[in-house]
Amino acid sequence: MAAGLLLATAAQAQTYRCGNSYSDAPCKGGRLVDTTPPVTNNSTADAAGSKTIYLCQGGDGGRF
Questions:
Q1: pLDDT confidence of 5, banded at 50, 70, 90?
Q2: How far are the Cα atoms of 11, 14, 24 from residue 6, in angstroms, in the given order?
Q3: What is the percent of the chain with per-residue pLDDT over 70, rounded to a whole number?
Q4: Confidence label for 7 from pLDDT (cuts 50, 70 and 90)
Q5: CB 9 within 8 A of CB 36
Q6: Can you tell me the distance from the alpha carbon of 64 to that of 52, in angstroms, rounded to the nearest whole number?
Q7: Residue of 53 and 16 predicted with greater confidence
Q8: Is 36 left (phi over 0), alpha (psi -120 to 50) or beta?
Q9: Dist. CA 14–CA 5, nearest whole Å
Q10: What confidence score (pLDDT) does residue 41 get?
Q11: Is the Cβ–Cβ distance between 19 and 31 less than 8 Å?
Q12: How many Cβ atoms sit within 10 Å of the Cβ of residue 7?
């Protein structure tokens, strides 16, 4: 199971923050963003104050 997790992690594209937008290609002054989903305990996933944030891809290929 761990080998499958490592393989899935290696296959994920890298995401860069370029100013106020995100890209899968490096940009001048851009920062690499960790998009790995956090591992949580299901009993605390609905804790007060917790939020879920989604990284979406638009029709032009950009992410928002």
A1: very low
A2: 9, 15, 20
A3: 67
A4: very low
A5: yes
A6: 14
A7: 16
A8: beta
A9: 16
A10: 64
A11: no
A12: 9
Q: What is the mean pLDDT of residues 39-58?
A: 71
3-state SS of the chain? Answer: CHHHHHHHHHHCCCEEEECCEEECCCCCCCEEECCCCCCCCCCCCCCCCCCCCCCCECCCCCEC
Confirm if 33 and 17 have CB atoms less than 8 A apart.
yes
d(CA 13, CA 61): 13
Around 36, how many Cα atoms within 13 Å sit in the side-chain half-sphere? Answer: 11
Q: What is the mean pLDDT of the chain?
A: 73
